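Re: weekly structure request thread

Next one in the queue (59 aa):
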Amino acid sequence: MTDLNPDVAVQTVAEYLVTPVGQRIRATVPEMRERFGLTTIQVIEAIRLANALRLERAG
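Done, posted below.
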């Protein structure tokens, strides 16, 4: 289940993940943990949120 009120860090990573892939090195959990200082659980939540954002923007 996706948190409908994600914290700022999760929201930031989700927005980053929605950017075109060419602008990112790789969208892996270790990279997101290192780059943004999130926990693994927060990165997973950000990935879920990013997928929801992609669907919302596509529709």
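Helices lie at 8-18, 29-36, 40-58. The radius of gyration is 11 Å.
Next request, please.
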